[in-house]
Q: What sequence folds into this?
């Protein structure tokens, strides 16, 4: 008897391959022995093939079914990037359930909100740390019935009846399968393209996180279009180190990996990411601006530690590379002497540096999530790393625009990928529609209506489209404003310029309707600490180091460097930073000052640090502060400091050369 003919929809989505579990099964059949996923455990890389991927996920699914898992059930996924957690995602989808990943560093209050809001009955977590959080919130989350953990270390004496190890769950799965041999296949066959594949909770920059519901169709079509747009193949290697709760990791480490068949690699821990990056040497890499900033900081710290001859050589060739790349991106000619000198720089600096960072094999790399500072972008492209800007959102299944190879611009985020349409509202807000547009926010129809209108997403970003089709994002629409004299104020643009400095970890610029721009700065403890130690400057803590006069002088030079560059920008030269202070503490997601993806919560910071901000617009040179802080174990404390305020020089329009 002939098998029924498969049908394809308008986007070429085969009804027999319209969910991720079905695609994983296809990979297990077509490429059973190809490596699908690796994990570094106790210093050794462990590899799993596509056939093992499918088999492990199948056993987890059968185990969940034995516990009474029903279609539509939600499963919380919490932990670092681990093969077992990716398998749990697939297992949940195979049974018609919905995985709900949660940021692994979330405090109990945040975990409780998502568990309760998503109405999760099951949770699959990494280790004791996550189990402890769930046990502490379980009484306030009555729907949560089963908690499955992968790593049993430290839980020998745990006796809560809701707990079960992943190994025990899989054993239950084997027994369940013996009595229900067709259950898994039948449930998987019932799944369809328009089922909810995942709920990703937004970072909550403006308030309570919202659960964006994405279907298999959203993710499969968008991930496939982007893979074809960029020419991704099964031979790619990617490092999976970003939070599983972030939609970017779900697209790159799950959706695109399954669609193209490439391998993902899970680092041993967050502390070993840069070392593991060097070992894997990926061909495909994604990093939000904070990751590129961290890599740059580590480079500059090592440069500062080098002998003066080596330091001068490296700085010379780095300036050369950035100048050449700036000219290339600006479609300007590169001088002959620069073209002749670049190969020497590649031999002495760029090649060894890329090799040391693990970026020597990268064929394509992306940055997205927020705007990246142009200096940081130039630094990596100058080294020869093909890093490109990508514009996307959770509500779009990530991809909206990508810079094409050979058509990279310094000030744009590229052109729309396949099947994406973009237009601008009368107010200059970027609107778009695509196959990736989400189904809506879970249990929040009002927010859905505000964001999604007639199939068009209101991005909340201000921008414009060039005649060449390139999209340029100015800033978040709600953040772009004017100073009291009418000067354009784009805070994120200014903050990114400040963060190009290895000594500045975070910055918050203030200026809307104010007479001038001021800044609240977080120093980078590692970089500034290293700088202080080389100068025999003793300090006891972040707060102590941040208020050292020498550190203020260091940061003042960085602020004035930014002001000099702004003097050359006709639109923003009036937005130079006139006064600044160094915060007494690091901005922390546990204190609700930034999100888990390190996006600034401006409204909250404006309220919390109102006395500091008002002092910046007075004639005061210091202000005493007393702040509440939340420690890693959840305890609250009080911090007291005397924060200094410093003026910075501003610069006139530079004379024509």
A:
């Amino acid at each position: 008897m002939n098998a029924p003919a498969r049908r394809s929809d308008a986007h070429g989505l085969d009804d027999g391959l319209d969910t991720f579990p079905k695609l994983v099964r296809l990979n297990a059949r077509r490429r059973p022995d190809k490596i699908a996923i690796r994990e570094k455990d106790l210093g050794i890389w462990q590899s799993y093939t596509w056939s093992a991927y499918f088999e492990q996920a199948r056993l987890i699914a059968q185990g969940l079914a034995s516990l009474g898992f029903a279609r539509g059930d939600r499963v919380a996924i919490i932990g670092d990037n681990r093969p077992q957690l990716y398998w749990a995602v697939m297992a949940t989808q195979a049974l018609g359930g919905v995985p709900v990943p949660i940021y692994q560093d979330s405090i109990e209050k945040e975990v409780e909100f998502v568990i309760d809001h998503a109405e999760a009955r099951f949770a699959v977590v990494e280790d004791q740390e996550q189990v402890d959080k769930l046990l502490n919130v379980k009484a306030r989350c009555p729907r949560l019935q089963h908690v499955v953990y992968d790593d049993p270390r430290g839980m020998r004496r745990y006796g809560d009846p809701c707990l079960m190890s992943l190994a025990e769950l899989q054993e239950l799965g084997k027994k369940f399968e013996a009595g229900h041999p067709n259950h898994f296949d039948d449930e998987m066959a019932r799944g369809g393209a328009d089922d909810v594949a995942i709920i990703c909770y937004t970072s909550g920059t403006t308030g309570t996180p919202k659960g964006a519901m994405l279907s298999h169709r959203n993710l499969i079509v968008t991930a496939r279009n982007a893979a074809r747009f960029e020419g991704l193949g099964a031979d790619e290697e990617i490092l999976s180190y970003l939070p599983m709760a972030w939609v970017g990791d779900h697209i790159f480490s799950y959706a695109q990996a399954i669609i193209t068949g490439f391998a993902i690699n899970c680092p041993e821990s967050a502390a070993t990411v840069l070392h593991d990056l060097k070992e894997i040497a990926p061909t495909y890499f994604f990093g939000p601006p904070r990751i590129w900033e961290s890599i740059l900081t580590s480079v500059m710290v090592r440069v500062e530690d080098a002998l003066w001859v080596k330091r001068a050589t490296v700085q010379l060739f780095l300036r050369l590379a950035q100048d050449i790349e700036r000219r290339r991106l600006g479609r300007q000619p590169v001088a002959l002497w620069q073209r002749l000198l670049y190969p020497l720089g590649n031999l002495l600096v760029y090649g060894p540096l890329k090799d040391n960072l693990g970026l020597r094999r990268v064929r394509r790399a992306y940055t997205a999530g927020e705007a990246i500072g142009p200096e940081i972008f130039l630094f990596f492209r100058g080294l020869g790393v093909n890093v490109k800007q990508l514009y996307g959102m959770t509500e779009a299944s990530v991809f909206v625009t990508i810079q094409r190879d050979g058509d990279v611009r310094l000030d744009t985020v590229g052109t729309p990928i396949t099947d994406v349409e973009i237009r601008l509202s009368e107010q200059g807000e970027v609107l778009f529609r695509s196959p990736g547009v989400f189904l809506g926010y879970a249990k929040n129809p009002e927010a859905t209506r505000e964001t999604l209108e007639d199939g068009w997403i209101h991005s909340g970003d201000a921008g414009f489209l060039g005649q060449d089709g390139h999209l340029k994002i100015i800033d978040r629409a709600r953040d772009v404003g004017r100073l009291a004299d009418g000067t354009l104020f784009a805070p994120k643009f200014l903050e990114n310029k400040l963060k190009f400095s290895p000594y500045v970890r975070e910055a918050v610029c203030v200026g809307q309707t104010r007479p001038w721009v001021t800044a609240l700065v977080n120093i980078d403890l590692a970089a500034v600490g290293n700088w202080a130690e080389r100068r025999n400057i003793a300090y006891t803590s972040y707060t102590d180091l941040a208020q050292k006069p020498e550190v203020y002088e260091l940061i003042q030079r960085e602020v004035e460097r930014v002001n000099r560059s702004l003097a050359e920008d006709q639109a923003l030269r009036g937005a130079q930073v006139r006064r600044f202070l160094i915060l007494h503490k690091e901005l922390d997601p546990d204190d609700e000052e930034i999100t888990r993806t390190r996006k600034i919560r401006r409204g909250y910071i404006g309220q919390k640090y109102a006395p500091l901000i008002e002092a910046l617009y007075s004639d005061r040179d210091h202000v005493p502060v007393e702040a509440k802080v939340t420690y890693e174990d959840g305890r609250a404390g009080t911090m007291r400091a005397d924060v200094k305020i410093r003026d910075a020089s501003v610069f006139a329009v530079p004379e024509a050369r």
User: Anything to note?
Assistant: The chain has three domains: 20-280, 284-436+445-476, 481-647. Residues 308-329 form the longest helix (22 residues). The radius of gyration is 26 Å.
